[in-house]
Structure formats: structure tokens, C-alpha cells
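Task 17 of the worksheet. Students: predict the tertiary structure of the chain below and write it out as C-alpha cells. Keep your answer in the requested format; marks are given for formatting as well as content.
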Amino acid sequence: MVDNIPQLQDIDDFPSSYYGEYHIGYAITEELVVNVVLHICCGVCAAGVMETLAVEGHEIVGYFYNPNIHPQAEYQRRLDAVWTVAKRCGFSLEEGPYDPDVWVGETLLLQGEPECGQRCGVCFRIRLHKTQLCMLSLGADAFTTTLTVSHHKSARVVNQIGQDVGAGRFLVRDFKKNDGFKRAMQLAKEWDIYRQNYCGCVYSMR
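Model answer:
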């Protein structure tokens, strides 16, 4: 079981150093173009975040790893949506394995947790750890995630976990800033991208 996960309702207690535009261990700055592996949770989030990173000049590889998504048919719908965005935006996409048993095993004892509780932190860590491994295997410079574009997820929590697992190579961002979520929804509508109505896991379906 993954431990030491902050509860999302405690985000105001997190150090300010976990939050910001570019706070990453080996000094990635706005002036430095880097190869970034972007963890993608769905097509809607991918659309807005890809645009933001592309405007900054980064070279991006998408990585779809979401063993939390239930059922498998829903997983496939979201993956298909991400492929649509990838083709429209012209970025390469790596598909991680769909291994829901791993996710269930890590979160089983937290099934009674409310949404935005301890279970969500464990879920973030599972996916970001796998993204870090993808970054290393591809020889990229850094990694980040689309998770912070959602109003339902705390950027502080996601960024803290990203830095914990990132060994100084996690690009800290809050992609919902500057109407990031609104832009993502706009692009999804224009491109007819599938828009889901729950986070993804069997517990959020309830």
C-alpha cells in the first residue's frame, strides 16, 4: 500500500514551495525548451494542456496511463478521445498498460474514503510514478500531468506528489490558471471530443 499521501482537504497547509509556475529540481525555466512527457487523463484535459505547453515551445510526448478508469469500455472511450487530440495537435502518444488490478490493490483499504480524500492521493501517485518511469525510458527531460487542469483536483496536492516521485524532474504547474479549464472545454466542444461525467474510478461513479 502506498502511504504518506496528503489529504486533499489539507492543501492550505502545504508549503508554498510545492506550488508555482516552474519549480523543479534542476532549474527548468521559461527560457529553456525541454522534452516533456505529459501524463494525460482524458481527451478534454489533453486538448487544453497540450496547447499551453506547445505555446511555451516544449517538445511533448503524451502518456496515457490510467488504471483507475472503470469499466474497460469507458477506458477505451477516453483513450480514443486522447488519440483524436494527439492527431489534431501532432504529438506522439505512448499507451501505458491497462492494469486495474494494480490500482484496486493499492486503493482497496481506502474504498470508504470520500472523493478528494486519501484514495485520490494514492491514485495520483500510482499514475505519476508510472509517468516518471516512462520519462526515464524515453530519455526525456521532465514530466508533468494534465490532472491540475480540473477544478475537481487540487493542484497543490498533485504537484506535491509529482515532486515527491519526480526526483527533481517534475514540472510543477496549475493548468487551470488563466482560464485553462475553460479553454480545454472550448476545444473539446469544437473538436467533438468525448466529455466524461465522472472522474474515472468505480467509486467516483457512485
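Marker's comment: Residues 118-138 form the longest helix (21 residues). The chain is about 40% helix and 10% strand.
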